[in-house]
């Protein structure tokens, strides 16, 4: 999640002309998909294996460690992170493309992955930013969202899920410089293409070590989907306010696309009322390592990560049928 503008210099330079690099291949046709809505029966979302999500986080940590301690825009760690995610998606049968832009004098990349099939006039998107700040590896911010979205996409492939709507997943570059990658993507779409996106779901910091359970209140249908999931677990939620407008949903919302998402908290401090609902430590930040070198794999609450990962899958399945 990017800093508030008062705490960050504006991004230098204009975004350059995009270069689209297409890779991957369409998934092979299956005669009997494991999950289908063709017969009118709603397909149930799978449980997302937390061990798989944590394995992705370990890979992102290793990438950062091998590349100067971060995965920031324009650095080798970001490129290696993108290559890791793209390879997983290509192997699973997604059609991937890399969108190139320039910000602050460095080349940045977005990764877009489409699951073949579904009505391309009704697109459900789920996304997260893949870059870290330069001061740390960015495992909660935002390896957590990136890994959970990746594992949800891989669950789609494992289930050979065939929803009514078209599924698209995205990993954004240069979010920490001011939502540069996601804004570039939205601006690269014509109005007709933007109108085809029936919902964009954003996940930025979902494994905070002193977690809260915050739901975006932007689109009523998406908001209700997440609230229903957590109500089923008996977990109260609160409206997300700390990161409002500070992550990659903002460019979509500003373009008129319905948006929603989840958040487990950054540097705001947990109140006694919140601790009574969710546990944790009163008076401490939701993530004491926000934008710091200690944002490592040790900075993750596995329970919050597990619940939020399952909530992502639930929403993707519910909203795409």
Q: Your description of this structure?
A:
The protein is α/β, with parallel strands linked by helices. α3 links the parallel β4 and β5. α1 packs across α3, α2 packs parallel to α3 and α6 packs across α9. The longest helix has 21 residues. The radius of gyration is 18 Å and the shape is globular. About 10% of the residues have low confidence.
Concise summary:
The protein has about 325 residues and is of the alpha/beta class.
Low-confidence stretches: 5-36
**Number of E-type strands:** 9
Largest sheet: 9 strands, mixed
SSE run:
EHHEEEHEHHEEHEHEHH
Alpha carbon gap, first and last residue: 30 Å
Q: What overall form do the CA principal axes indicate?
A: globular
Helix content: 25-40%
Structural class: alpha/beta
Radius of gyration: 18 Å
Strand order of the largest sheet: 1-2-3-5-4-6-9-7-8
The chain-level mean pLDDT equals 91
């Amino acid at each position: 999640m990017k800093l508030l503008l008062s705490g960050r210099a504006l991004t230098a330079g204009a975004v350059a002309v995009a270069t689209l690099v297409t890779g991957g291949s369409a998934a092979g046709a299956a005669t009997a998909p494991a999950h289908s809505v063709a017969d009118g029966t709603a397909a149930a979302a799978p449980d997302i294996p937390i061990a798989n999500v944590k394995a992705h986080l370990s890979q992102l940590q290793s990438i950062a460690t091998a590349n100067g301690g971060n995965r920031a825009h324009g650095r080798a760690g970001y490129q290696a992170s993108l290559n890791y995610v793209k390879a997983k998606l290509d192997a699973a049968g997604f059609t991937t493309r890399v969108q190139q832009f320039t910000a602050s004098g460095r080349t940045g990349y977005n990764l877009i992955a489409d699951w073949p099939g579904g009505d391309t006039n009704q697109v459900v998107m789920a996304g997260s930013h893949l870059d870290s700040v330069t001061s740390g590896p960015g495992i909660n911010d935002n390896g957590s969202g990136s890994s959970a979205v990746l594992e949800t996409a891989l669950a789609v492939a494992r289930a050979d899920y065939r929803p009514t709507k078209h599924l698209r997943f995205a990993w954004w570059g240069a979010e920490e410089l001011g939502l540069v990658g996601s804004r570039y993507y939205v601006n690269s779409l014509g109005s007709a293409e933007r109108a085809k996106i029936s919902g964009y779901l954003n996940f930025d910091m979902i494994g905070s070590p002193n977690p809260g359970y915050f739901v975006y209140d932007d689109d009523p249908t998406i908001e209700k989907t997440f609230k229903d999931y957590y109500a089923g677990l008996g977990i109260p939620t609160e409206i997300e306010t700390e990161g409002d407008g500070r992550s990659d949903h903002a460019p979509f919302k500003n373009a008129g696309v319905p948006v929603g998402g989840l958040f487990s908290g950054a540097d705001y401090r947990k109140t006694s009322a919140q601790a009574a609902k969710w546990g944790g430590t009163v008076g401490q930040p939701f993530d004491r390592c926000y934008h710091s070198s200690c944002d490592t794999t040790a900075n993750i609450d596995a329970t919050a990560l597990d619940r939020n990962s399952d909530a992502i899958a639930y929403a993707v399945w519910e909203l795409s049928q």
